[in-house]
Amino acid sequence: MDRLTLKAMAKINLGLDVVRRREDGYHEVRMIMQTVNLYDRLTFEKKKEDTLQMETNMKKLPTDGSNLIIRAASLLKEEFGIREGLAVRLEKRIPVAAGMAGGSTDAAAVFVAMNRMFGLGLTQEELCERAVKIGADVPYCIQGGTALSEGIGEKLTALPAAPDCHVIVAKPSIHVSTKWVYQNLHLENVKEHPDIDGMVESIREGELSGVVNRLSNVLETVTVPKYPVIAQIREFLVNNGALGALMSGSGPTVFALYDDGQKAQRALEELKKTKLAAQSFLTSFAEHTCIE
Ligand code: ATP
Predict the structure, then answer these.
(1) Pairing relation of β-strands 27-47 and 279-284?
(2) Catalytic (active site) residue 137
(3) Which of 26, 107, 159, 225 has the fewest Cβ atoms nearer than 10 Å?
(4) How far apart are the C-alpha atoms of 53 and 55, rounded to whole Å?
(5) 11 an active-site residue?
(6) From CA 249, how far away is CA 194, in angstroms rounded?
């Protein structure tokens, strides 16, 4: 196989709790991860000469060794002594630095593609052992679907598909650094933690109302006071027919869940008129990622 194109899907967090800060500075989390049908497209092409290169339509993204695509490919190239070259074309559609794991899902696609193209014969578990070295969310991005993510993100429990619904994803124009959010999280002041176990139960029972009632992200305690636009988008969507809305990951993207597609479409049109969001999409939950 000399050429392969994969869709690398974004994720949202239906729930996000931070349990504690470890001695080494990492945070232990409990997160409900959900793949959404919003994706980057990556095209991989083998090259005869031993090179590793990438290009992208998104001018502001690095294409050197700081891009997670190059880091993931280098890791496998070195470990398996791959002497052929690889060229990657990234068509970026997932909002960048948005809390949607855009970079992590691109890296996940590299692991999946190279395993197939170079016949490495790695199981999903073996891919994930390597993927966590690139980023805590990369193993989940290989697995996809609905999952409980614990530890620093590497302990994954697959869950049944979350109840079907329509999803608006809206990113304001601000940039929020994940590092800044975690540095400013004061766990001792957090009074209410998300009910992650209750959310898992609701997903297992296929109850959308149980999921909606438990939408909660502890990182909102940091980002929302600093960036009121996040709360404004959330409230706008709830006032426009959403069952519930929440910030994803460390933000600033907000997502909203709808049980009625037409209502969601109308809300998206109204949201676009307000200019609160720089990017907004109507999408749905997905069960798989890194697909052709
Ligand atoms: P997470 O939800 O995991 O916190 P995110 O959505 O907040 O991720 P990304 O879109 O992954 O953030 O990008 C964060 C930074 O990583 C960007 O500012 C970018 O410079 C860098 N980066 C490296 N590789 C990539 C990539 N392939 N796609 C996007 N960003 C990348």
Answers:
(1) unpaired
(2) yes
(3) 225
(4) 7
(5) yes
(6) 13
The ligand 1 atom nearest the CA atom of 250:
4
Ligand 1 atom 11: residue of nearest CA: 103
Q: Single out the catalytic residue among 7, 11, 92, 171.
A: 11
Ligand 1 binding pocket (C-beta < 6 A) is 61-62, 67-69, 96-104, 106, 137, 178, 249-250
- The enclosing H or E element of 234 equals helix 228-239
Q: What is the pLDDT of residues 201-246, one digit of tens each?
A: 999 999 999 999 999 999 999 999 999 999 999 999 999 999 999 9
CA angle 227, 245, 17 (to 5 degrees): 75
- Residue 107 Cα: closest atom of ligand 1: 27
- Mean pLDDT, the chain cut into blocks of 10 residues (292 residues total): 96 97 92 98 97 97 97 98 97 96 98 98 97 96 98 94 97 94 92 96 98 98 96 98 98 97 98 97 96 92
List the helix and strand counts (H, then E) for the chain. Answer: 10, 11
Residue type, 177: S
Alpha-carbon gap, residue 251 to 177, rounded angstroms: 9
Mutate to test the pocket of ligand 1, among 67, 140, 141 (most ligand atoms within 8 A of CB): 67
The contacts found for 212-217 with CB under 8 angstroms, 24 or more apart, are 212/243, 212/244, 212/257, 213/244, 214/14, 214/15, 215/14, 215/15, 215/244, 215/245, 215/246, 215/257, 216/15, 216/16, 216/17, 216/192, 216/246, 217/13, 217/15, 217/16, 217/246, 217/247, 217/248, 217/249
pTM above 0.85, yes or no: yes
- Rounded CA gap, 219 and 16, in Å? 8
- Which of 34, 39, 61 most suits a substitution to test ligand 1, by most atoms within 8 Å of the C-beta? 61
What's the length of the chain? 292
Distance, in Å, from the CA atom of 101 to the CA atom of 99, rounded to the nearest integer, reads 6
Q: How far apart are alpha carbons 101 and 241 in whole angstroms?
A: 27
